[in-house]
Write a structure and sequence with these properties.
CATH class: Alpha Beta
Oligomer: single chain
Helix content: 25-40%
Number of helices: 7
Distance between the termini: 6 Å
Largest sheet: 7 strands, mixed
CATH topology: Rossmann fold
Order of helices and strands: EHHEHEHEHEEHHE
Number of domains: 1
Number of strands: 7
Shape: globular
């Protein structure tokens, strides 16, 4: 067996903007990675050369694939939920789709947003957090979705959190972190993956000063594990994970 990591995001560019360091570090140590993105980002403020929502969605799907390849992601999937409308999605249906993928891919570690909605307090991020968290617990439950594959319980659920805010955004209410990743060794690759999202170039330019100052670390909170344990600080997402 090998180490496997599942990351669930809401929009193309979340995988690099938010999680790029963790994904690239995992790829460098030989971890098999799957990223699931729920929408194609048609509601984005920055639209590149797209003249319609459909065209922007197609553009961002291609950008997502390019970014995943740069980060070393082996498996990537973009679902067909509507951008900026996830709060109205059927939570049970969405969680069931994620349970299916957890039971099939069998990751030891699951990674997603925190319930605060991340640095831009996006409601789609909060919904992804809720659905992924539910799926983490339900994938191993004999009371949930028995028709969706063999039960499987991942060993770690991490939520993204932060030690800083964006100066031009309403600040989120972040969870205290338990994991700090030094991403200096993969920082340039994270930026390269972000640059693959050419439609979002103005966003990259706007956030560059923040990335330059704070972007060399990523912080996460260990939210759930099958083993009761005290909160403590760590620098390794796979510490104590059995293959």
């Amino acid at each position: 067996m090998s180490l496997r990591l599942l990351c669930v995001v809401a929009h193309p560019d979340d995988e690099c903007f938010a999680f790029g360091g963790a994904l690239a570090l995992a790829a460098d140590r030989g971890v098999e990675i799957s990223v699931i993105c729920l929408t194609d980002g048609q509601a984005a403020t920055y639209r590149g050369s797209a003249t319609s929502g459909k065209e922007l969605g197609e553009m961002r799907r291609a950008e997502f694939v390019a970014s995943c390849k740069i980060l070393g992601v082996a498996h990537y999937e973009l679902l067909d939920y509507q951008d900026a409308q996830l709060e109205f999605a059927n939570l049970s249906e969405l969680a069931g789709k994620l349970v299916t993928r957890i039971r099939s891919f069998r990751p030891q570690v699951v990674l997603t947003f925190g319930s605060d909605g991340a640095l831009n307090t996006h409601p789609d991020h909060t919904v992804v957090s809720a659905a992924t968290t539910a799926a983490f617990h339900w994938a191993g439950s004999p009371k949930r979705y028995l028709e969706l594959g063999e039960l499987y319980q991942p060993q770690r659920l991490y939520h993204l959190t932060t030690s800083y805010f964006l100066p031009y955004r309403q600040p989120p209410l972040p969870a205290p972190w338990t994991l700090t990743l030094d991403i200096n060794s993969v920082f340039d690759r994270k930026l390269e993956a972000f640059r693959a999202h050419t439609s979002q170039a103005p966003l990259m330019e706007r956030t560059k000063p923040v990335f330059d100052e704070h972007g060399h670390e990523e912080r996460y909170t260990l939210i759930a594990s099958p083993v009761p344990q005290p909160a403590r600080q760590s620098t390794d997402m796979f510490e104590g994970v059995a293959e």
